[in-house]
Amino acid sequence: MSMPALRFDFDFDSDWNETPLSTLLTFNNGINASKDSYGHGRKFINVLDILNNEYILYDDVIGSVSVSERQEEVSKVEYGDMLFLRSSETREDVGKSSTYLDKNEYALFGGFVIRGKKVGEYNPYFLKLLLDTSSARDQVSSKAGGSTRYNVSQTILNSVSLYMPSLEEQHKIATFFSLLDQKIVKQQEKIKQLEQFKKGMMKKIFSQEIRFKDKNGQEFPEWEERYLGDIVETFSGGTPTSTNSNFYNGDIPFIRSAEINSNSTELRINKTGLNNSSAKMIRVGDLLVALYGANSGDTAISKLEGAINQAILCIRSKHDTKFIKLFLDNNKQNILSTYLQGGQGNLSANIIKKLIIHIPSLEEQHKIASNLSLIGSKIEKEFEKQTSLIELKKGLMQKMFV
After folding, report:
1. What 8-state DSSP symbol labels residue 89?
2. I want to staple 131 with a disulfide (CB 3.0 to 4.6 A). Which of 82, 97, 176, 200 is the partner?
3. How far apart are CA 132 and CA 95, in angstroms?
4. Together in a domain, 368 and 267
5. Are residues 25 and 145 in the same domain?
6. Which stretches are annotated as coiled coil (predicted)?
7. What is the pLDDT of residues 197-209, one digit of tens each?
8. Do 233 and 283 belong to one domain?
């Protein structure tokens, strides 16, 4: 018997039937047009549209392309069609799907996308949810080929087989999860609004458009212009030889750049590894800056006592650490656009230390950090609510699908 662990018991009791994906969809690769064809014409679906949307509407699509009538006719994406990510740097993302739910406008689709044209009977949103389950994802990602990039083909998608209930039960499940997704989207919008509010406040504070007053209602002293390096001490770490197992599996958390804001680390080293490398110990409360990788410029107040590698800069100061973090956060985009043009290169201690900071009195630093931290705490609480909703959805999907 093929039934989910949890279902709408009073309405449905029949088995779910094994259904080849090839009976529901026919697959085609997308448009590869000349460079001057892009940026005008009809909207076309590409990688980010799939990754960023639970479902796709015409107005949500980012790009556009102008092609011949014949090319447009064979490249239409219409209501109920499925879109698959054809290529990705990670096995986790390759083959991910979304569904097109616009009944008024058709879109086109790009070369890094495979379209599944609807030929069978199914609820589109239910099928998108079903394709997100671990059993469906495993069928796709496990067969993905490639070395530096992973790729899926029409052949791989044609080989996928899914267990599906009646159309009536599909509709009921899709409606249920659609309501849950709406709550998640509303929560995401709430977080985005709070982040924009904080960002706006930071700009006004650091431009001194907004100034605080002391406990007696008096103006604070004028801000001083300094190089950041004049008021902080900095150091980076290193990595024990990765092939030497004698350096690892100890009791020292080994913090890498993607983990600067975490409560735990994937790797741990021992004192032998620490003493035989350039890894450096940091304390709880130290300010950390990611120098390399996708999160270059990210900052965090360390929640761990552990060792850092060469991709992290530790900052210590007699000034308010939270204020310095806020300064770096406020200037992050400017730093990246100035020193990491086109996303190439790395930040360094010298770059950070040569930044010009306008520094208020210590008392005003505390006041600024305290007020902005209140907004930050509110954002963290809203993130926790969002995480709870996402975990609820994951748990229900495990129980409501085969």
Report:
1. S
2. 97
3. 10
4. no
5. yes
6. none
7. 999 999 999 999 9
8. yes
In this structure, what are the phi and psi dihedrals at residue 296, rounded to the nearest 5 degrees?
Answer: -50, 135
Residues 237 and 324 in one domain: yes
Q: Are residues 134 and 144 in the same domain?
A: yes
Same-domain pairing of 278 and 288: yes
Whose structure tokens read 């958390």?
Answer: 253
Q: Which domain holds residue 373?
A: 167-210+361-401
Residue with tokens 């004049």, as numbered in its chain: 230
- Residues 282-294: tens digit of each pLDDT: 999 999 999 987 7
Q: What is this structure's pTM? A: 0.78
Strands 267-269 and 248-255 turn out to be antiparallel
Strands 38-45 and 248-255: unpaired
Q: Measuring CA to CA, which residue among 80, 77, 157 is closest to residue 120?
A: 80
Distance between CA 402 and CA 400 in Å, rounded?
Answer: 7
Span 39-83, pLDDT tens digits: 999 999 999 999 988 899 999 999 999 999 999 999 999 999 999
Within-domain flag for 3: no
Enter the tokens of residue 80.
Answer: 């109920």
Contact between 65 and 44 (Cβ < 8 Å): yes
Degrees, nearest 5: CA angle 216-222-227: 135
User: CATH number for the domain including 41?
Assistant: 3.90.220.20
Would 7 be classed as within a structural domain? no
Between residues 113 and 294, which one has the greater pLDDT?
Answer: 113
**Which single residue is written with the structure tokens 């309501």?**
179
Co-location of 153 and 97 in the same domain: yes
Cα radius of gyration rounded to whole Å, the chain: 26
Are residues 27 and 83 in contact, defined by beta-carbon separation less than 8 angstroms? no
Question: Do 151 and 245 reside in the same domain of the chain?
Answer: no
